[in-house]
């Protein structure tokens, strides 16, 4: 039996990973450390058994070190981060404080516990990062690989790039056993409703505009969160210390195409379940109209990267990992989850700041 600390475990990907790990390794102790900011929701962990939840901040070195020592933690999976690009444009300070200084605090606590005591305890610090640290791609450029130079273009991606470098430095300078994964755009259950897919779904249900930045031709690789969790588990168990692994979904789409697929999935859901029309009477689909009538183009975001694409060949070749969710099936499943879990997203939205 091992003990694993999941930072940001009440957030979108973190909560999905906690659920994945409890099912995959039920003998392990799981400790969640989360500050429960706007994007962290204790409700996302409801019904998860055998969980030790700690309400606290990753910037609190003493708290992190105490948890590592007293709970006998030998692995950290570090999700905790400010992650919304639009928020970083309007308020970058908290992104630096959480993503860089918070990661540094955890690294210091891990070094103090696992290395400075001289115990030689086997350990692993796994850091979750993003493909946005690589910047943007041209239409014909090769996809991001683990050797692509960093070129972050937003305060968010710059703060994540800084944290990536700190994790690397703690391995090469001190010998801390670390791994990093850079993932593409995630989607799936428990995603905070300011992100594109849940935002557009909920707007569609209420008959509100679907605001598309610019021409909508920005391209992204879409990764189902369950596939991401499986990739993290593979890296934890078989990844090489000091290495970086890119994780993608294998589906690169223009945003406008993704929006059309969301609209089609909403229309299909209403056609299959007539009760949705009475639950969400303001939705165009409740009147038999296409959800695409809500599409609206708005001014593009400052510094908006044009294209991300992931070369996931390394994790496939070295760890045997490949995603299994096709985008249309994943969207149908995701939309079905939100329709079946209306109390969750209404509670989360009521706390929005």
User: What proportion of the residues is helical, as a percent range?
Assistant: 40-55%
Mean pLDDT: 94
CATH architecture of the domain at 3-187 and 225-248 and 303-325: 3-Layer(aba) Sandwich
Based on Cα principal axes, name the global outline: globular
Q: At the third CATH level, what is the topology name of the domain at 3-187 and 225-248 and 303-325?
A: Rossmann fold
Strand portion, in percent?
15-25%
> SS-based structural class?
alpha/beta
Radius of gyration, in Å, reads 20 Å
What's the main sheet like? 7 strands, parallel
Which runs of at least 5 residues are low in confidence (pLDDT < 50)? none
Topology summary:
Elements: E1 3-7, H1 12-24, E2 29-34, E3 51-55, H2 61-70, E4 75-78, H3 85-90, H4 93-114, E5 124-130, H5 155-174, E6 178-183, E7 185-187, H6 196-205, E8 210-213, E9 219-224, H7 225-238, E10 244-247, E11 252-254, H8 255-272, H9 275-279, E12 295-298, H10 313-319, H11 327-340, H12 342-350
Parallel strand pairs: 1-2, 1-4, 2-3, 4-5, 5-6, 6-10, 7-9, 8-12
Antiparallel strand pairs: 9-11
Helix pairs in contact: 1-7, 2-4, 4-5, 6-8, 8-11
Organism: Parasphingopyxis marina
GO molecular function, one term: dTDP-glucose 4,6-dehydratase activity
Protein name: dTDP-glucose 4,6-dehydratase
């Amino acid at each position: 039996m091992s003990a694993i600390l999941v930072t940001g475990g009440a957030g979108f990907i973190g909560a999905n990973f906690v659920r994945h790990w409890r099912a995959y390794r039920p003998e392990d102790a799981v400790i969640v450390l989360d500050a429960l900011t706007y994007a962290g929701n204790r409700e996302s962990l409801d019904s998860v058994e055998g969980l030790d939840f700690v309400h606290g901040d990753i910037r609190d070195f003493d708290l992190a070190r105490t948890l590592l020592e007293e709970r006998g933690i030998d692995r950290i999976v570090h999700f905790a981060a400010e992650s919304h690009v639009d928020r970083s444009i309007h308020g970058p300070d908290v992104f630096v404080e959480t993503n860089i200084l918070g990661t540094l605090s955890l690294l210091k606590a891990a070094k103090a516990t696992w290395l400075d005591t001289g115990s030689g305890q086997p350990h692993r610090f796994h850091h979750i990062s993003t493909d946005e640290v690589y910047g943007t791609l041209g239409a014909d450029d090769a996809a991001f690989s683990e050797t692509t130079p960093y070129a972050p273009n937003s305060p968010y991606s710059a703060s994540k790039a800084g944290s990536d470098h700190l994790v690397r430095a703690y391995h090469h300078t001190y010998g801390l056993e670390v791994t990093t994964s850079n993932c593409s755009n995630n989607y799936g259950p428990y995603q905070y409703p300011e992100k594109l897919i849940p935002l557009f779904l909920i707007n569609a249900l209420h008959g509100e505009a679907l605001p598309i930045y610019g021409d909508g031709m920005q391209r992204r690789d879409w990764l189902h969160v369950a596939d991401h969790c499986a990739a993290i588990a593979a890296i934890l168990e078989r990844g090489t210390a000091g290495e970086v692994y890119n994780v993608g979904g294998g589906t690169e789409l223009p945003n406008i195409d993704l929006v059309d697929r969301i609209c089609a999935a909403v229309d299909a859901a209403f056609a299959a379940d007539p009760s949705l029309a009475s639950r969400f009477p303001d939705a165009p689909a409740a009147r038999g109209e296409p959800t695409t009538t809500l599409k609206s183009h708005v001014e593009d975001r400052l510094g908006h990267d044009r294209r991300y694409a992931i070369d996931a060949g390394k994790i496939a070749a070295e760890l045997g990992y490949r995603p299994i969710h096709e985008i249309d099936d994943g969207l149908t499943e995701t939309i079905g989850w939100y329709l079946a879990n209306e109390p969750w997203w209404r509670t989360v939205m009521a706390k929005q700041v």
